[in-house]
Design brief:
Chain C: Belongs to the GatC family. The structure holds three protein chains of three kinds. Chain B is an alpha+beta fold. Chain B is built from 15 helices and 17 strands. Classes of the chains: A alpha/beta, B alpha+beta, C alpha+beta.
């Protein structure tokens, strides 16, 4: 049995040493889910039978010495917008309620090849559109670290599943902060890799130029190990990149000496909750004391990130979601007069309000007469935002930032005012617009005991630097905690 | 008194490329599979699937562009054209609007009166074909088959430079030859591998400004295009003469009824919301790549035609016909390469081959017989092994079944009889049996010799050499 | 000044997006879209003249596949999720009049 507090890499090591059987690790995860998920609702589908069968296969391969990777035998949860062959994949939408892919997402395939066991599919905002996991057609997820509060979104289910200890690892996806923000709200570690690092093949697209699959973990080392598993060039994804170096776990060194970390002063102004700001700056202080050069910097253009992001994301989404039409798969309305009526009813009944809102906005900004004023304008501003980041990275190794303006809001308080919800993405969307890597690690709690996360943003393909700084920070916090206990 | 009108025509020609696989996935483009047996998550629009560009499509598009004197866009991109239709699985078609691969080209056509004219090409872009719909009016349903979905197309958009159906057809024939010579497409209108949409407007003669145009789709033969152009010209002139405006609209041609009707739909605004496809990185065409494609361009029809005139001494007309189909030109050259006399080869192709092609309403591209068999037959006709009539009969067998003429003639005993004794015997018999005819001949009606030759051929079961028979009759007739 | 979103705008966009909002949803959609576009208008504060629209982020280009058939007959799988299917084809309401 997996001991409480055992990390994913420790669990795999124990499995490979023969101390724990894969089936037992899987059974424990299933038992945890049975016990906790009634309350939390992190999972939309739990594949008990499939997982147990897989566990046996993997056990055999481990015993035969065929599977030796650092995460072999570890159970994992997968966000429900990542296609899993033979396992229902819904995007938390009525329109895909009964969709069972007959093909496997490349990222999911890589998990299986690494000997990991997919336990189930996690809840999310419908089609990853939302910041709270409340737009799921199948009901919201509770924040395990803060009952009554949302887990954040859209990868809320994945972050909640890890935060509650039901699984040690999960895959999320991040289009505008959908891994980093819920990781912050749930107190887990989550990373959005550089665009093109993880194949998007089989990830049901929201904003194709922004989407990226990434790891959600209980600590930095597990996060790096999972990134090692999923990061690879894939010829099925034309935007996939051949990286010069992989081996992200090699970056786990407790050393930040000489690292230049910029803190954009625009990110720490009025909009940021005091406790969040304090916790993040305390963590920054730890890094500084360990030899990093931490200083305020100017980023600029941050007010333009959200409008730019919503124009681009919604435009792409309006096109990406056209394929859901009741013809080839998914929901088809029961009664309709003709083809057009079938399309309209199937889509109107199949999509939830937030998805429809974004499809409408996206269709509008691409429509005749508005394309230049909105869509092209946004692509131009995106170029300027990228220049702003390039300027900072010409001087700094990374940017230190919040992942959200505040800790997790109460359930039911966000959907009333969509614009207000969109505005809370201020610290995360630029990273997607510019294709950059970003990681969130927990840095303590606010006065109400809600987790606070800190985001580190790196230049293109500089995940290793981020992981090194995040790992150092994690170590320093642990040491600091022990000192305070003593 | 009615005014004089001029017709202004521009064409959008879709050419299906002859790649083995689809433009964005590894599915076969082969014709004739059972529905949806050549489909995968990508070309069926499954969620999460992604397109990967077939390199051969870019090379074909570039080659056609170069042959049509286009500028090659060194940085071309794909865009999504958004519209809902069941044959369009993603409900967007991947095409090129903003940065097409070729621009600003021209091709030269030769009109019926021999006058040459340049037709400008606005652009050529790459795109994917849609699937197929089959309708069942009894159950009010349509069936969707994605076997054709994702088959690569290039769309060649001309400037409005054509003035009548003859020019349009000459232009289409030129395009077809370019694509066939390059091997980019077989360009068969009947099978839909070449499709034309016709943009047509009329204006008063002498006017510089363009009238309102209509776009007519679904034209699958030169005949249909001809009829449609005449019909649409008349329709628009009627409207203008009666003081009504021409409405800019898309029309559908019904070839059976030889009429067109407007395709209007309240459900579909013509607003395609084109934007760059984020799933496909741009295509950058380097100098080296461009040069490589240029170097690999084959000899095209105008050059080949000139060479046939210069090198083989063929008449211009024959050279045009032979080079008008790549298959015919290939056959010609292969047969000549086997040592056959070019004029004889040309003759066999121009007369017998094209007669059979026409009789069987075939496309010359579908000629199946081998050059070797034609060369052998020509040889046999030359050396008198078979007479002309037998040669023609044997050729029909070559044309339909590609038989080996040497073996066939042997097995069927069709070789000419050159045995002087047997021939003389037959001639004497014919002269003896037809004293009246012999008499007529002697009285100066020399034309009756044909009858005597026929009698001899009959006797010889067609296997005699008619020239020799003639000669022998002339020599022996005085003895009777 | 942001575009004024009217009922006609919502009707038009609904045609494009193949959605059929109820009267109440239309009112909400109008409000939401107006609010978002007013906010997006902020982009107009920024002078972007001379800036190339950035459709693709990284200098990645020429990603190709070779022209080789890699897929066989997978019809059964393709049609497994079809709402209505007949003889290996997807079935839809008739598309011609």
């Amino acid at each position: 049995m997996r001991k409480t507090g055992m990390t994913a890499t420790e669990l795999s090591a124990a499995i490979r040493r023969g101390e724990i059987r894969v089936a037992d690790a899987v059974k424990q995860a299933l038992a945890e889910i049975r016990e906790k998920d009634g309350e939390i609702h992190a999972f939309l589908t739990v594949d008990e039978e499939g997982a147990l069968r897989k566990a046996e296969e993997i056990q055999k391969k481990i015993d035969a010495g065929e599977l030796t990777g650092p995460l072999a035998g570890v159970p994992i949860a997968v966000k429900d917008n990542i296609c899993t062959k033979g396992l229902r994949t819904t995007c938390a939408s009525r329109i895909l309620e009964n969709f069972v892919p007959t093909y496997q997402a490349e990222a999911a395939d890589r998990l299986e090849k690494a000997g990991m066991v997919i336990i189930g599919k996690t809840n999310m905002d419908e089609f990853a559109m939302g910041s709270t996991t409340e737009t799921s057609a199948f009901g919201p997820t509770q924040n395990p670290a803060a009952p009554g509060h949302v887990p954040g979104g859209s990868s809320g289910g994945s972050c909640a599943a890890v935060a509650s200890g039901m699984v040690p690892l999960a895959l999320g996806s991040d289009t505008g902060g959908s891994i980093r923000q819920p990781s912050s709200f749930c107190g887990v570690t989550g990373m959005k890799p550089t665009y093109g690092t993880v194949s998007r093949y089989g990830l049901i697209a929201y904003g194709s130029s922004l989407d990226q699959i990434g790891p959600v973990a209980g600590n930095v080392a597990d996060c790096a190990a999972l990134l090692d598993v999923i990061a690879a060039y894939d010829e099925k994804d034309s935007t996939s990149m051949k990286r010069d170096r992989y081996g992200f776990s090699d970056a786990l060194k407790k050393d930040v000496k000489g690292m230049k970390i910029g803190i954009p002063k625009e990110y720490f102004g009025d909009g940021l909750a005091k406790d969040v700001k304090d916790r993040i700056l305390e963590a920054a202080e730890l890094l500084k004391n360990a030899g990093a050069q931490v200083e305020e910097c100017h980023l600029g253009l941050i007010d333009y990130a959200i409008p730019t992001y919503y124009v681009i994301a919604c435009a792409e989404a309006s096109s990406n979601l056209e394929r859901f039409d009741g013809v080839k798969y998914g929901y088809r309305a029961a009664d309709y007069e003709d083809l057009d009526d079938m399309y309209k009813k199937s889509r109107s009944e199949g999509f939830g309000p937030e998805v429809k809102r974004r499809i409408m906005l996206g269709s509008f900004v691409l429509s005749s007469g508005y394309y230049d004023a909105y869509y092209l304008k946004a692509l131009r501003v995106k170029a300027l935002i990228k220049e702003a980041f390039d300027r900072v990275f010409s001087e700094y190794d990374m940017i230190l930032a919040p992942a959200a303006p505040d800790t997790a809001p109460r359930m039911g308080s966000s959907l009333e005012d969509p614009l207000k919800m969109y505005l809370s993405d201020i610290y995360t969307v630029s990273v997607n617009l510019c294709g950059l890597p970003g990681i969130t690690i927990p840095v303590g709690k606010d006065r109400n005991g809600l987790p606070v996360g800190m985001q580190l943003i790196g230049n293109r393909c500089e995940e290793a630097k981020l992981l090194q700084a995040a790992y150092t920070c994690e170590c320093l916090q642990k040491e600091n905690g022990k000192e305070q206990m003593a | 008194m009615s005014k004089e009108y001029e017709t202004v025509i521009g064409l959008e020609v879709h050419v299906e490329l002859a790649t083995k696989t689809k433009i964005f996935c590894g599915c076969s483009t082969a014709f004739g599979g059972a529905p949806n047996t050549h489909s995968c998550p990508v070309c069926s629009g499954m969620p999460g699937s992604l397109p990967v560009l077939n390199k051969q499509v870019v090379e074909y598009a570039m080659a056609v562009g170069l042959a049509a004197n286009c500028e090659i866009n060194r940085n071309c991109k794909f865009d999504r054209k958004n519209y809902f239709y069941p044959d369009n699985p993603q409900n967007y078609q991947i095409s090129q609007l903003y940065e097409p691969i070729c621009r600003n080209g021209w091709i030269e056509i030769e009109k019926k009166d021999g006058e040459k004219k340049k037709i400008r090409i606005h652009e050529i872009h790459m795109e994917e074909d849609a699937g197929k719909l089959v309708h069942d009016t009894w159950s009010d349903t349509s069936y969707v088959d994605f076997n054709r979905s994702g088959v690569p197309l290039i769309e060649i958009v001309s400037e409005p430079d054509m003035r009548d159906a003859d020019e349009v057809i000459a232009y289409l024939e030129q395009l077809r030859m370019i694509a066939q010579y390059i091997g980019a497409s077989d360009c068969k209108l009947q099978e839909g591998s070449m499709r034309a949409d016709v943009n047509l407007s009329v204006r008063e003669k002498g006017s510089e400004s363009l009238g309102t145009r209509t776009e007519t789709k679904n034209l699958s033969s030169f005949r249909a295009i001809s009829h449609m152009i005449d019909g649409e010209r008349a329709r628009q002139i009627d409207l203008l003469e009666s003081g009504q405006p021409v409405v800019q609209e898309t029309r559908h041609w019904n070839e059976d009824k030889e009429t067109s009707y407007a395709m209007r739909s309240k459900e579909n605004a013509q607003d395609y919301r084109y934007f760059p496809d984020p799933d496909l990185p741009p295509v950058h065409i380097s100098d080296e790549w461009l040069q490589r494609v240029k170097d690999s361009l084959p000899e095209l029809q105008p050059q080949k035609r000139q060479r046939y005139i210069d090198a083989y001494g063929l008449p211009a007309y024959d050279a045009s016909i032979l080079t008008g189909s790549k298959r015919l030109a290939d056959l010609f050259e292969e047969t000549v390469a086997l040592g056959a006399n070019p004029k004889k080869v040309s003759n066999w192709l121009m007369v017998e081959t094209l007669r059979l092609v026409k009789e069987k309403s075939m496309d010359p591209q579908d000629i199946r017989f081998s050059a070797k068999h034609l060369a052998d037959l020509i040889q046999m006709a030359e050396d008198g092994t078979v007479n002309n009539q037998v040669a023609k009969d044997v050729f029909e067998k070559i044309f339909t079944d590609d038989i080996d003429p040497v073996q066939y003639v042997k097995e069927n005993g069709l070789a000419s009889v050159n045995d002087a004794g047997a021939l003389e015997e037959a001639v004497r018999k014919a002269l003896q049996n037809n004293p009246n005819v012999v008499q007529q001949y002697k009285e100066g009606k020399t034309k009756v010799i044909g009858f005597l030759v026929g009698q001899v051929m009959k006797e010889m079961k067609g296997k005699a050499n008619p020239a020799k028979v003639n000669e022998l009759i002339g020599k022996l007739i005085q003895e009777y | 000044m942001a575009e004024k979103i009217t009922d006609e705008t919502i009707d038009y966009v609904s045609i494009l997006a193949k959605l059929k909002p109820s009267p109440e949803e239309k009112i909400q959609a109008r409000k939401d879209m107006q609010q978002m576009l007013d906010y997006i208008d902020k982009l107009n504060d920024l002078d972007t003249s001379g800036v190339e629209p950035m459709s693709h982020l990284f200098p990645l280009n020429n990603v190709f596949r070779e022209d080789t058939v890699t897929n066989g007959d997978d019809r059964e799988n393709m049609l497994r999720n079809a709402p209505e299917e007949k003889d290996g084809q997807y079935v839809v309401p008739i598309t011609i009049e």
